[in-house]
Amino acid sequence: MSAKPSSPVVLPDVASLRAAVRAWRANGERVALAPTMGALHAGHASLVREGLRRADRVVASIFVNPTQFAPTEDFSKYPRTFDADLATLGAAGCDACFAPGVADMYPQGFATTVTLEGPAKVDLEDHFRPTHFAGVATVVAKLLNQAQADCAIFGEKDYQQLKVITRMARDLDIPTEIVGAPTVREADGLALSSRNVYLSADERARAPALHGALRMAAGKIAAGEVVGHEMTEARELLAEAGFVVDYIEARHAETLERIARRADGPIRLLAAARLGQTRLIDNIPV
Ligand code: PAF
Predict the structure, then answer these.
(1) Looking at the structure, do residues 138 and 230 belong to the same domain, yes or no?
(2) Which atom of ligand 1 lies closest to the CA of 61?
């Protein structure tokens, strides 16, 4: 393997991405893909590092995908920090950054969308963002096809997204291995997110209560307390801390189906709640 440049090579289109991957493969190198929407933080750097544990080369994609935002959501004001992102990728050891434009990803006449069931239809994120996962799955299917990587790394912070993508890759026989990487947190427990920059100082101070409520519920369920009771208590705790709770639920960790008893399977607790204008999501295992 040749020495890595300190800044990743920018690949502006699919042809340059494919040429880079082809050259690495000709050298016998394994390739990992880390799909992102930019505004990169330490959580994204950890995706790159996970890729480097599994492959010789990592290509991160940066594409703010319009089709996964509803018209009421923050597509136009989503943070775009390309130069800082390249520095973050370089420091993490990333080899290349695939940064296509909207016209490359959705050319004139684009008319295909992935239709989803299973973990995409379980009344969690899909209830509050009904068009979101079709946009995610379609762009991720394109990215996986474009890169043809050996593995692709996604953060567990977007746990339902990870399960939707895993299911889609399996169902569509996409050969890239889908890998989940653990959530990276601030010292006070707040999960890193590009949207944390929207929090006011007061909201930022209260935000770790989301992780706190999940941890408390997970601890009690693990100790044998009744699942439903603990989730109600966690919801009340969050409301007291000033959150508007979209959901805080115990689900089967693989199917994301509802689960009432610890004995019925591995449990994942998932939550989404709003503090002012900012919507936070988080999840932890029991
Ligand atoms: O998790 C994200 O940043 C996005 O949903 C993804 C997977 C890059 C698709 O746009």
Answers:
(1) no
(2) 8
List pLDDT tens digits, range 260-285: 999 998 999 999 999 999 999 999 99
Token pair in block for residue 16: 């340059």
Task: Name which residue sits closest to atom 9 of ligand 1, judged by CA.
Answer: 136
Q: Is residue 95 part of a domain?
A: yes
Give the count of domains, the chain: 2
Q: Are 209 and 191 in contact (CB under 8 A)?
A: no
Task: Note the pLDDT tens digit of each residue in 198-216.
Answer: 999 999 999 999 999 999 9
pTM flag (> 0.90): yes
Rounded to the nearest angstrom, the distance between the alpha carbon of 136 and the centre of ligand 1 is 6
The pLDDT of residue 4:
63
CA gap 214, 37 in Å, rounded:
26
User: Does residue 286 lie within any of the structural domains?
Assistant: no
Question: Ligand 1 centroid to 273 CA: how many Å?
Answer: 20
The CATH number given to whatever domain includes residue 150 is: 3.40.50.620
| Residue-number span of the structural domain to which 250 is assigned | 194-280
- Order of strands, sheet of 244-252, starting from the edge strand that comes earlier in the sequence: 244-252, 267-275, 278-285
Pocket of ligand 1 (CB under 6 A): 35-37, 65, 68, 136, 139-140, 158, 161
Domain end point (choices 146, 181, 216): 181
